[in-house]
Amino acid sequence: MFSRSSQRGILPGFGLTLGVTLLYFVIIVALPLLAMLYKSVNLGWADFWSIVSSERALATYRITVGSAALATVLNAIFGVLLAWVLVRYDFPGRRLLDAAVDLPFALPTAVAGLALVTVFSSNGWFGQYLEPLGIKVAYTPLGIALAMMFTSIPFVVRTVQPVLEDVAADVEEAARSLGATNWQIFARIIWPAIFPAFIAGCSLSFARSLGEFGAIVFISGNLPFETEVMSLLVFIRLDEYDYPAAAALATVMLVTAFVMLFVTNSIQAWQLRYADRN
Questions:
Q1: 3-state class (DSSP) for residue 89
Q2: Buried-most residue among 24, 52, 56, 194 (CB within 10 A)?
């Protein structure tokens, strides 16, 4: 039997540990965000609205959200397929491929952008064959979506993969013995089990794409009204020493991130309730 003191945890002093962690969170996360919001509040509503609703800002919202949506749809399809291959098949190099999924997490995003430009520019490995076919990737919204796909696909794979591993194989065998087809097994057994994790992974992928900067700045060309994203416009305003405008645009991104965080947490809570019921 464990003593009461051992049940409290291996780190003694709830007040001390809570105080240290809260202090760390406030200094690292809360204070910088509050400072940015303070800059935005000092603008006043009229100036704030004129900045965040300018034609150039609206163009960046449209390009960023559209590219992120395209990247999320493609990541949703190929991320589930990749998770399926990693879980259901054993082949030479599987462990290497599994480890490579996390490469976008470890790789500096600027390096990712440089690598994509090298491959998809007009004289790159793929670009020299795609451009004669009328498919231009570098310095177009398609290149922006590609950079977002590169940096955000691990969120879909790593969210769906553990749920697929938990789907019991005997349930599928039982369904197959009762005459169910492969499509019926996927649609009625596997898909309902992975759907909450799939939605959560897609939400995280979309949120990550909205805030991507390093990988995009090299391949987008950064043309206003054409290939300029929200994060880049914030950087441009900072480079012009226009801190209030940068803070106002960053506030829009922060609100968007909070909305995505709320949606993601709601889906994960639903996922937990779904798992408890089953």
A1: coil
A2: 194
Per-residue three-class SS string for 49-83: HHHHCCHHHHHHHHHHHHHHHHHHHHHHHHHHHHH
Q: Which residues contact 53 (CB under 8 A, 6 or more apart)?
A: none
Q: Are 169 and 116 in contact (CB under 8 A)?
A: no
Q: Is the pTM of this model over 0.85?
A: no
- Among candidate residues 152, 165, 154, the one with its CA nearest the CA of residue 193: 165
For the stretch 210-267, pLDDT in tens is 888 888 888 887 888 888 999 889 999 888 888 888 989 999 988 888 888 788 778 7
Alpha-carbon distances of 174 from 162, 180, 193, 213, 278, rounded to whole Å: 22, 9, 16, 48, 17
Distance (Å, whole) CA 261 – CA 268: 10
Cα three-residue angle 20-22-28, rounded to 5 degrees: 100
Cα atoms in the 13 Å half-sphere on the side-chain side of 50: 6
Q: Which two tokens stand for residue 1?
A: 């039997």
DSSP 8-state symbol, 132: G
Element (H, E) at 120: helix 109-120
Q: For helices 45-52 and 31-43, give the axis angle rounded to 10 degrees.
A: 100
The CA distance from 30 to 21, in Å, is: 12
